[in-house]
Amino acid sequence: MGRGIENEKENHMRIIIRMMLVLIAVIWAMSSVAQASPISITYWDTTKVDGWRNNAPDPNYQNVDVIGGDAFKLEKTVVTWDGSRVKMDIYTNWPARGQTSQTGVADLALDIDQNGSWDYAVRLGSVSRFNTPTVVDLLSGTWRNSHFYFGSTGLVYGGQYIDGAQKFDIPVLVGSTDVGNVIATWSWLGSSSSSRFKVTLDFGNNFNTNHDWDSFNFLWGTARCGNDTQFASAAVPIPGSVLLLGSGLLGLLGFKRKLK
Q1: Buried-exposed string 23-46: b where 16+ CB fall within 10 A, e elsewhere
Q2: Predicted model pTM
Q3: Does residue 213 belong to any structural domain of this protein?
Q4: What is the pLDDT of residue 33?
């Protein structure tokens, strides 16, 4: 009698495990298809900044979206994973002058392992023509902050960005080393658009072969001034569901061993 109950339990477990294996195979196949197809995630700019002047917080610019008005406004960043390729589209009003950008080494900071330390920066430099792909630098080096450039100038600048209940200095890369190339394209969207420019950063076909860039932190600093800053954590959404299902399967296998 007891042995019959045990056999029935084991048969039920075999059925469950077979169903789980089929389900994980289907989701894994869907994940592979999705990875082979573009996945785009939009990150809206909700980051607040504190304005500083002469190396001290300026009480007139605390916890604000942008310093200096609409000319510095950032709307959103769209991150696209396409196989081993990673692209970023940044929608912004900067530069307001039209044909020439004056952005510097604080443009985009990247934290690949999401440990709170910035690993790379993208320096956009000067762009004189729209819709023309331009090779720009992917850099590593020594990190400072916006105070380093603006602290004693008497100008109001973005001194810190706010993430949750914490405040962090806006990073600026100095003493940089070129570690790669990025293709940057500036597109003019029109003066009546919610963002006047789209900056497309294409990191290349084989950039994410090892999936190191499936998740990363980024910070757009609107040049060295940090007048409108966006901090966000980007991540491909699908692999997490596969890992969760795999964990459930391992749990069932462990439960099966207990039944024995």
Answers
A1: eeeebeeebeeebeeeeeeebebe
A2: 0.78
A3: yes
A4: 47
Number of domain units in the chain: 1
> Is 72 within 8 Å of 65 (Cβ atoms)?
no
Closest by Cα among 155, 171, 186, 184 to 230: 171
Report the range of poorest mean pLDDT among 38-52, 89-103, 162-176, 206-220.
Answer: 89-103
Residue 259 lies inside a defined structural domain of this protein: no
Q: Looking at the domain assignment, is residue 24 inside a domain?
A: no
Q: Is the pLDDT at 250 greater than 80, yes or no?
A: no
Taking alpha carbons only, the member of 112, 141, 109, 107 closest to residue 124 is: 107
Return the minimum-mean-pLDDT range out of 26-40, 163-177, 185-199, 216-230.
Answer: 26-40
Give CA–CA dist 226/171, Å, rounded. Answer: 9
Domain assignment of residue 185, given as a range: 38-236
CA nearest to 180, candidates 117, 90, 119: 119
Distance from C-alpha of 48 to C-alpha of 10, rounded to nearest angstrom: 57
Q: pLDDT class for 94, splitting at 50, 70, 90?
A: confident
Is residue 13, in this structure, part of any structural domain at all? no
